Amino acid sequence: MKIQTVNKYSSLYKQLGWLVMGVAMVTLTGCGKAKSMDQGAITSGQTLAEKGRGSIPGCVACHGANGEGIEAAGYPRLAGLNVGYIEKQLKDLARELPPAGVVIESVSKDYSKTPRLYSDLTVFSPGLRHDAIMSPIAKQLSNTDIHNLALYFASLPYTAKPVAADYEVLERGQDLALRGKAEYGLPACVSCHAPDGEGFGADFPPLAGQPAIYIVNQINKWQQGLRDNDNLGLMKAVADQLTDADKINAAAYYANRSLIVKGQ
C-alpha cells in the first residue's frame, strides 16, 4: 500500500512539474512576443518621429534629434516622458470640437464654470488642449501612430543641462516648488511633480528638464482656458493662483535642476 501511495504522489508531482514548465514556457513566449511587438512599435515611432509622413512633419524638427526639446524656442522635451502621458496629450491636442447641438459654457477663470459638455445623459470635461502648431498635426495621427510615438520617446534617455538664472529668482522658485503658499492654500509643486520635479506616472509630468518658456506658456494656457485636460482639475486650480512672478520663478527653478532619465 505504501509503495502504491508513493508512486501515486510521485506521478502527481511529475504532472505538476510538467504543468509548471508549460506555464513558464507560455509566459516566456508571451513576454518575448510582447517585447518584440514593443520593439516594432518603437522602430515605427522612430521612423515617424525622424522622417514624418506626407503632410505630417518629423517631430525632431521642433523637439530635437533625441527628443530633448529646444530651450530657446520653448519646445518641450519628449525624451523619457511617461508613455501614458504622451498618448493622452496627443489625443487631447487632436480632439475635435463637440458635435452640433452640444452646448459648451464659455471659458471662465472660475473653475466651477470651466467648459463642460452637455449630452442627453452625461456631463463631462472635454479634456481640451489646444496649440496652433501641434493640434493640426495631432489630428492627422492614427491611434497606432500615437502609441508608437509615445513608446519611442518614452524609451529615450535624457540628461538635463541646467540653465543658469539669477539666484534670487531661483530662491523664490525653490520656495514655491518646495513649500507652495500655505496661506493661500496653494500646494507645493513637489506634491504632485515629485521631489526633484521628475514627474510621477501618467498624470503628473516632469518639470525638471523642461524649457522655462514652455512651463510659463503652459501655465498661461491653463489660466486662459486653452488647456483643461488634467486629472480632477488640480492644475487648473493651482494655475489660477499663480502670479506672473510665480510662473517665472518656478520655471527658472526647474530649468536649473539636474536630471538624468534612463528611458523606459
Please tell me about this protein's structure:
- The chain is mainly alpha-helical.
- It folds into two domains: 36-101 and 126-155, Cytochrome c-like domain (Cytochrome Bc1 Complex, Chain D, domain 2, Orthogonal Bundle); 167-256, Cytochrome Bc1 Complex, Chain D, domain 2 (Orthogonal Bundle).
- The chain contains ten helices and seven strands.
- It has helices at residues 2-51, 60-63, 83-93, 134-138, 143-155, 167-179, 190-193, 212-224, 234-239, 244-255; strands at 103-104, 117-118, 123-124, 128-129, 158-159, 227-228, 260-261.
- The strands form three sheets. The protein has a three-stranded antiparallel beta sheet, with no helix packed on it.
- A hairpin with a 4-residue loop joins strand 2 (117-118) and strand 3 (123-124).
- Helix 1 crosses helix 5 (143-155).
- The longest helix is centred in the N-terminal third of the chain and has 50 residues, at 2-51.
- The model is unreliable at 23-28 (pLDDT under 50).
The low-pLDDT segments are 23-28
Number of helices: 10
**What general form does the structure show?**
globular
Please describe the biggest sheet, giving its number of strands, its sense, and whether it closes into a barrel.
3 strands, antiparallel
What is the percent of helical residues? 40-55%
What are the secondary-structure elements, in order, as H or E?
A: HHHEEEEHHEHHHEHHE
End-to-end span in angstroms? 58 Å
Number of strands: 7
Q: How much is the radius of gyration in Å?
A: 24 Å
Content-based structural category: mainly alpha
The CATH architecture name of the largest domain reads Orthogonal Bundle
CATH class of the largest domain: Mainly Alpha
Keywords: Electron transport, Heme, Iron, Metal-binding, Periplasm, Transport
Pfam families: Cytochrom_C (PF00034)
Binding site for heme c 1: 59, 62-63, 134
Binding site for heme c 2: 189, 192-193, 235
